[in-house]
Amino acid sequence: MARHKESIMLYTIAVVLIVLWLLGLVTSYTLGGFIHLLLVIAIILILVRVISGRSL
Known about the structure:
By secondary structure, the protein is mostly helical. It contains two helices and no strands. It has one domain (2-51).
């Protein structure tokens, strides 16, 4: 059960980071490299999950 909650939390964080990144791209307000760093972190979280063999 704890793994399931951990999985949900990781994907929630990844989705929030991707939304923030997209918001930075769409709006004129950008934080420069910080937004892109958030995207990279979100992608790394997803890739680690897939590579480790856990289901999405």
